[in-house]
Write a structure and sequence with these properties.
Helix content: over 70%
CATH topology: Butyryl-CoA Dehydrogenase, subunit A, domain 3
Number of strands: 0
Largest sheet: none
CATH superfamily: Dynein motor heavy chain, linker domain, N-terminal subdomain
Structural class: mainly alpha
Strand content: under 5%
Length: 111
């Protein structure tokens, strides 16, 4: 995350440079991609931490019987999380993964 923030600052510096000239649109697009990646990773980390914490609790029979509405909501989150994890492949570049349109809406559903 710190490296991503560093690259965002570099991209912002390049974009605001008076010498950027004809590469202005490219610099803006690159900065926007880095911002999107950062947003996705921040949500991803938060969702993963919450999911791993809540999964054993919400999957217990007692909780499912006691809190059926919450158990149903958690099941929706489980489906969204499973879909996200299925999109991962070991060799897929991060920038390519974050450009898939369904990633951010799925994370926001699970958040």
């Amino acid at each position: 995350m710190s490296r991503l923030e560093e690259h965002r600052l570099i991209a912002m510096t390049i974009r605001s440079s008076p010498d950027v000239g004809p590469l202005s649109e490219e610099a803006q697009a690159w900065e926007s991609k880095l911002i999107l990646v950062q947003e996705i990773l921040e949500i991803w980390i938060r969702v993963q931490a919450n999911f791993l914490y809540l999964e054993p609790v919400m999957r217990s029979e007692d909780i499912m019987a006691t809190l059926p509405a919450e158990a149903t909501e958690f099941e929706q989150v489980h489906v969204a999380w499973s879909t996200l994890v299925s999109l991962l492949t070991p060799r897929k570049p991060l920038m390519e993964l974050t450009q898939q349109e369904e990633i951010l809406p799925l994370l926001q559903t699970a958040d």
